[in-house]
Amino acid sequence: MSPARKVFLLVALPLTLIFAGVIVALLRQPTPDPKDPNINSSADSWEKRVANAFKPSECPLLPKPKLDASYYQGPLIDAHFHPPSLPDSALGSELEAPDDQTLLGVNITYDEIACTFRNDGTSGKVFAFFPVYPNIYKPALEVVKRAVDQYPDVFVPFIMPPDNDGSPTGYPTVNSDTLQKMLKVYPNLFKGYGEIGLYERQGGAKELPPDSARLLEIYPVAREHNLVVMFHLGEGQAASYEKILQANRDIKFIWHGDQLINCTECTQDLTVIDGILSRNPNVYYGIDELYGDVFLMQAEVGKKKFLEHFKDYDPLLKKDVETWKSFIERHPDQVLWDTDRGVLTWSMDIEVGRALTNYSRAFIAELDPDVQEKFAYKNAEKLLPSN
Ligand SMILES: [Zn+2]
After folding, report:
1. Residue 82 Cα, ligand 1 centroid: separation in angstroms?
2. Coil, strand or helix at 315
3. How many CB atoms lie within 10 A of CB 107?
4. Distance 342 CA to ligand 1 centre (A)
5. What angle (nearest 5°) sits at the alpha carbon of residue 63, between those of residues 288 and 61?
6. Which of 9, 87, 227, 268 has an alpha carbon 20 to 30 Å from 135's alpha carbon atom?
7. How many Å apart are CA 309 and CA 384, to the nearest integer?
8. Domains of the chain, each with CATH number or no CATH
9. What is the sign of the dihedral through the CA atoms of 86, 179, 225 and 373?
C-alpha cells in the first residue's frame, strides 16, 4: 500500500464518512407524527377517506324537467356551491356527520353531487368553493384534483382555506404564505379564491376588512395565480372594499350577502350595492336570495317545507321582481345567478334542485330579454379563463 493510499484510508476516509454522517443527520426530518394527515405514515386511512369521497354510484337517467313555455329555457350556471369537507377528526375516530349537514365520504360522495347537478335542471356547471383546511390540506387538495379530473365540465374550482382548523375564533382565511404553499401542490388547478366570509362571527372571529394587512398580502397571490376573488362582505365594509376594487382593477371580484345594509329589519335596500357595481367594472354580485325575499337555505326549513314554499309562484315572483328586476337590469353585465347550496344535506336533493331552478327560470323570464342570458350564465362564463 502506497503511503498516500495509507493516509487516505487512515485519515481522509474516516473524516469523509464522519462528515457525510453529520450531513445526513442534519438533513433528516423529525420523526413523523402519526396523527398528522399530511404525513405518509397515516396514508392508508386518509387514502380511505379520500376513496370514500369517490365511491362510485349509479346516477339514474331522469327525464328532463318539463318547463312552462313562458319560462327562460336557456343554459343556467350556478355560481355559488359549497362542496362538503372531508372529515378532519383524528384517524380511527367514529365518523359522524352533524345533523342535516353534508360530510364528504360519510353521507355524500362526488358521484352523488355530480348526479344532482346533471339532473337539477341547470347546465350542470357550478362555481365550487372547495374547503381546504390547513390541518388536512394535502388530502383536501387531492379531493379537489380528483373531483375536477373526474368531472371537468361540472366544477369550476375555487380554494376556500379557513385558518381555523375548525375553531370558531380563527381567521376566515389562511395567510398568503400558506395560500401559496397550497396553490403550489397542483399548479393551475384553481380558478378562484373564496368564498371568504369577512363578517364578524357571533362569539367567534372578529371581522376581517378587505383592506386588512392579511388580505393585502393575498391579492398579489390571487394575481399571480389568476384567481377570481370571492367574498361574503361584513357590515360596513363598503368603503374598504371599494378601495381594494380600485387598487386591483386587473383582479375580478365576486361578492354577495346583504351585510352592507345598515338595518336588520328593513327590506333590501340596494343603494350601496348599486354604487359599488356602477363605479367598479371588475366586480360581480351574486344573487342567491330569490324565492320571495325569504332566506330558505336553513337547516330548520328542510326539504318538505322548502318544496311547499314554491306551491304558488305568483306572490313570490311579485316580491322578487320588485326587489331584483330593475337592479339586475341596471347592471346587466355584473350580476350572477346562484344558489349557495351544499352545506345542508337536503339542499343537494335533486327534487330541491329542480324546485330551485324551475322557480329561477320563471323569475328570469320576467327580466328584459337582453339581460336574461347574461344573468343566467353569460356573466359567469365571462369569469372563466378563456383557455
Ligand atoms: Zn356561501
Report:
1. 7
2. helix
3. 17
4. 9
5. 95
6. 227
7. 33
8. 43-382 (3.20.20.140)
9. positive
Please give the distance, rounded to the nearest whole angstrom, from the Cα atom of residue 161 to the centre of ligand 1. 13
Query: 108 alpha carbon to ligand 1 midpoint, in Å?
Result: 19
Listed in sequence order, the residues at least 6 apart from 21 whose beta carbon sits closer than 8 Å to its beta carbon are none
Q: What span, in angstroms and rounded, lies between the C-alpha atoms of 272 and 259?
A: 10
- Say how many Å lie between the CA of residue 296 and the centre of ligand 1: 13
CA of 138 to the centre of ligand 1 (A): 23
The grid coordinates of residue 83 equal 362542496
| d(CA 96, ligand 1 centre) in Å | 23
Query: Is 194 strand, coil or helix?
Result: strand
Residues 6+ apart with CB under 8 A from 225: 183, 188, 190
Non-local (6+) Cβ contacts of 128 within 8 A are 81, 82, 83, 147, 155, 156, 157, 158
CA of 257 to the centre of ligand 1 (A): 9
Strands 78-81 and 155-160: unpaired
230 vs 289: CA distance, rounded Å: 17
Question: What is d(CA 61, CA 48) in angstroms, rounded to the nearest whole number?
Answer: 29
Q: Read off the amino acid at residue 65.
A: P
Written as one letter, the residue type at 131 is: P
* pTM of this structure: 0.86
Tens-digit pLDDT string for the chain (387 aa): 444 554 444 445 444 544 444 444 444 444 445 455 554 444 448 999 999 999 999 998 899 889 999 999 999 999 999 999 999 888 888 888 888 999 999 999 999 999 999 999 999 999 999 999 999 999 999 999 999 999 999 999 999 999 976 667 789 999 999 999 999 999 999 999 999 999 888 778 888 999 999 999 999 999 999 999 999 998 889 999 999 999 999 999 999 875 554 444 545 568 889 999 999 999 999 998 888 877 788 888 999 999 999 999 999 999 999 999 999 999 999 999 999 999 999 999 999 999 999 999 999 999 999 999 999 999 999 998 764
Give 196 Cα–ligand 1 centroid separation in angstroms: 9
DSSP characters over 254-273: EEE-STTSS-SSSPP--HHH
